[in-house]
């Protein structure tokens, strides 16, 4: 039997251990977060060595935990507020700027109440969770995340609390009219009220205005279909959306349902075309019969007949059917491609080539895969004809990207990808596209499927770079990097499947827990070092290039893996960030915040290279001035944030980061934010953040050894 993951115990001292460690020292933090570990390490720090202040805090925490276990949640809230007041009194004597002091304590209260609410809601105590959510909302009335959490709690409480949930979701939509999650949840609430299905229908329909991807459209069409299961138009749209993504199995289901309701010509054509793609010629023939039963002539029926003839290897009949589609009619150019295919199978290579040459350039772009497939067939028949200019030379002149597109097609699973994986739901959004939750059709294993935004993959060069990057990752054999499976390029859309990480990202962990206890932060840093060391030792020209908390993921068991290598490199083919690039990809702000200075301006870096050369320099460094030490810098920023709860910049904007790199002479001391930070660890962070890569750690292994040797306790 598979080993069950140990359920994590909810512990208020554990939640606050990082914050209290910043006030009272590392040993106190370790005692709160891991008392058993503290005993095993045989530290001199015991309950008898508590100061009067520390004893007061421990007593308060024990009282709060006792009230929580007894279900006296109003007392929990009152004692928590008392705890914050006591901490403020103790902290006011510290020489810390008021700005950071206020942010520090508001952060403690937010994290504490937010996690208390989340814990109680997960235990089914929605009413009790609202005590803490509402307390936070009184201080943060504009926090959309809190508003939606409170709304979810009201929804969980049952029917009589749905009006409050509805009101809160409407507030969330007032603040962010494009919040698809709020639209979906509001619609589901309205479905629970008798007689309000029409209103829910309108909410889902409004959400379609803000859907940027077909996957989001599918999500809301499914909601609409649940309210109106016999709506022919909804079924037809779903069938076409799924087919556009290459999800032919799902497309077939919805097109069949639409066809049962209304056997019009276009539905029959859609269904027949799909059946030909799935090689179900019998069902395609039935669709043709429905098409021909109408009184009016419908020229596209001949295209479908031609496809069926091709499947039956009746090439002459196929060509004759394609000829029956007049110029200007729908599917005329698709029929011309089909006619060329039939001529090739008849051995009439020159006629097929002439037909292919007659297809105008704009139509070739629309035909995409069909025209590319025809070109490949003509290329295979190159030696069976005689012409002064070969087909390959013709393509070189007219289709300069042909070889690249052919290579992309060869390396991609195409629609077979969706025969292996099933799309379940939209899991999240990122700067480069969406993350989908999928499942293997055979075996049921969950996978994360990433869809790169169509606006980013319009250039086949970008797709090929992605494929090259994924091929490299597929060959990795380390438990510290998220494994990648197959990729799919279909109709200009690019997907790839990877391991589904059940835990949260480090970004969410930082939002909830930072500053972290030193033990936790060091454990995370050591695992990231192992991943970077694997990259460095396996291929010295390989770096991650986009290390940030969002790309550091936790498994269900708590182990750390990195994912999402340098997407900006795949898009632009460069590791340097110009002002134009930062303006073009403003959604990649989080990548820029953690990027090394040499990625913004290489002049200083190259001048330092003239002064000296490190043994860890690589060909990548010589070419672009950026190598694995840029990843070490990113890890330094992450460590700074983990241990202080702050980024080292005054403003979280790309312009502020660039100004900081240009004008700031030194970094703020991490101990300014976390006075209990050991000097050894502060020295490590500041060395990682050095502007000159030569003055950072030379390799990830060197950094790992420094962390292990640091006097953390």
Strand content: 5-15%
**Secondary-structure-derived class:** alpha+beta
Tally the structural domains.
4
CATH architecture classification name of the largest domain: Orthogonal Bundle
| Low-confidence parts | 1-8, 602-623
CATH class call of the largest domain: Mainly Alpha
Taking the sheet with the most strands, its summary is: 5 strands, antiparallel
The CATH topology of the largest domain comes to Transferase(Phosphotransferase), domain 1
Strand order of the largest sheet: 1-2-3-5-4
Total beta strand runs: 7
What is the topological layout?
Elements: H1 12-24, H2 26-33, H3 35-40, H4 52-69, H5 73-91, H6 98-122, H7 126-139, H8 144-157, H9 162-175, H10 180-191, H11 197-207, H12 214-227, H13 232-245, H14 248-261, H15 265-277, H16 281-292, H17 300-311, H18 315-323, H19 332-345, H20 349-357, H21 361-367, H22 369-380, H23 391-398, H24 402-411, H25 416-420, E1 421-430, E2 433-440, E3 446-452, H26 460-474, E4 484-490, E5 493-499, H27 506-513, H28 518-538, E6 552-554, E7 560-562, H29 567-572, H30 579-584, H31 589-593, H32 603-611, H33 619-624, H34 628-644, H35 654-663, H36 670-673, H37 679-688, H38 700-709
Task: Please describe what this structure looks like.
The chain is built from 38 helices and 7 strands. The strands form 2 sheets. It has a 5-stranded antiparallel beta sheet with strand order 1-2-3-5-4, with helices on both faces. Strands 6-7 form a two-stranded antiparallel ribbon. With 713 residues, the chain is of the alpha+beta class. The chain folds into 4 domains: 12-207, Serine Threonine Protein Phosphatase 5, Tetratricopeptide repeat (Alpha Horseshoe), CATH 1.25.40.10; 214-411, Tetratricopeptide repeat domain (Serine Threonine Protein Phosphatase 5, Tetratricopeptide repeat, Alpha Horseshoe), CATH 1.25.40.10; 420-499, Phosphorylase Kinase, domain 1 (2-Layer Sandwich), CATH 3.30.200; 506-709, Transferase(Phosphotransferase), domain 1. 39% of the residues are buried. Helix 5 (73-91) packs antiparallel against helix 6 (98-122). A hairpin with a 2-residue loop joins strand 1 (421-430) and strand 2.
